[in-house]
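Query structure, 363 tokens:
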């Protein structure tokens, strides 16, 4: 089969890969959708940033946000069977360290066995994927493969962060950085009951997308955001003006920009909670812990990806809420056009970008 890998110079290359014989506990999936994550761009596509066991392995099939259908099972399979629709949790851990036993394979401590799909083992930018059964989650029938692909990383990551700070109808919410992760945050906050959702974004194309997107495609009565602001020095004052002078109860930082992080903290009201989701970057040198957090009794969380059981729970809830993460996809490409897909995602002038196969390419 032909698969795509990332040389690390803002290009995409292709080569022929053999489909290996399935080992104990492994399944073969027909890839249906593989979405592109911002971390793919920052850490692999533009350049290879990882070191040691975290490093991208040369010529490894890219793509750590895949969903597909089981077509064959190796020996020892307990739960899944041919024909099942599944999402892959994108880190395969050792299964026995403390973090893996909590379900957080993302934090697996084994240098030998922790391997990320699309980084240290083959991922979703190919027609077929070999996955371990323990990394699979059932995809509800009412959700598409493109829905499931986003839960594999982006939506799962957001959901974890929102569960840490808690979101309800009592909360006004600020979201900084309105790329795919920020849009996912808005969709989930709306489903969890938030009534006043404010977004901040620097890129005009993303501001336009955020202002137009509804919660459910075809129903313009409920928008993802109540207000979308252009990033600037007056953002804290603007957010407070939209919240009766108080600031928001909850803030979700998705941009990794140092000034946006400071805005998220400063625009949160007393006793509020903030979660940092966007990776990389620093915190503004203007951050003053006593002034900006301690004296106002604020709580700041860091959150990285999610666990297996919460990913399973999220898929169930998305089906119940009748919302579709695929509605955030602005562009779909076939595998042969993967270079265009990565180039577009790297430009930032888009929502989510997906490489699709079979029925998902035709959607």
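Result returned for the query:
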């Amino acid at each position: 089969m032909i698969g795509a890998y990332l040389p690390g110079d803002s290009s995409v290359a292709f080569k022929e890969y053999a489909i290996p014989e399935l080992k104990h506990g492994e399944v073969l999936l027909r890839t249906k959708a593989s979405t592109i994550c911002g971390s793919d761009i920052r850490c692999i596509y533009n350049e290879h940033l990882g070191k040691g066991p975290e490093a991208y392995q040369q010529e490894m099939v890219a793509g750590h946000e895949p969903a597909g259908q089981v077509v064959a099972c190796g020996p020892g399979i307990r739960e899944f069977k041919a024909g099942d629709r599944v999402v892959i949790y994108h880190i395969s851990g050792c299964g026995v360290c403390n973090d893996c036993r909590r379900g957080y394979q993302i934090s697996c401590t084994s240098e030998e066995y922790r391997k990320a799909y699309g980084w240290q083992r083959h991922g979703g930018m190919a027609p077929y994927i070999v996955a371990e059964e323990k990394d699979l989650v059932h995809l509800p029938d009412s959700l598409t493969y493109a829905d499931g692909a986003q839960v594999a990383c982006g939506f799962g990551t957001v959901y974890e962060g929102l569960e840490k700070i808690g979101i309800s109808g009592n909360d006004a919410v600020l979201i900084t950085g309105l790329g795919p992760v920020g849009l996912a945050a808005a969709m989930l906050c709306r489903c969890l009951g938030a009534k006043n959702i404010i977004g901040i974004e620097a890129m005009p194309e993303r501001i336009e997308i955020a202002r137009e997107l509804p919660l459910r495609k075809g129903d313009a009565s409920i928008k993802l955001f109540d207000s979308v602001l252009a990033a600037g020095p007056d953002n804290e004052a603007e957010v407070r003006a939209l919240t009766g002078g108080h600031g928001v109860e909850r803030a979700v930082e998705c941009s990794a920009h140092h000034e946006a992080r400071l805005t998220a903290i400063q625009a949160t009201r007393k006793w509020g909670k903030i979660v940092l989701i966007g990776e990389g970057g620093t915190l503004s040198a203007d951050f003053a812990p006593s002034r900006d957090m301690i004296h106002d009794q604020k709580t700041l969380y860091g959150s990285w990806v999610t666990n297996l059981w919460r990913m399973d729970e999220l898929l169930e809830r998305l089906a119940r809420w009748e919302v579709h993460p695929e509605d955030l996809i602005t562009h779909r490409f076939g595998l042969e056009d993967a270079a265009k897909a990565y180039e577009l995602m790297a430009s930032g002038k888009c929502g989510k970008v997906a490489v699709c196969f079979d029925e998902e390419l035709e959607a």
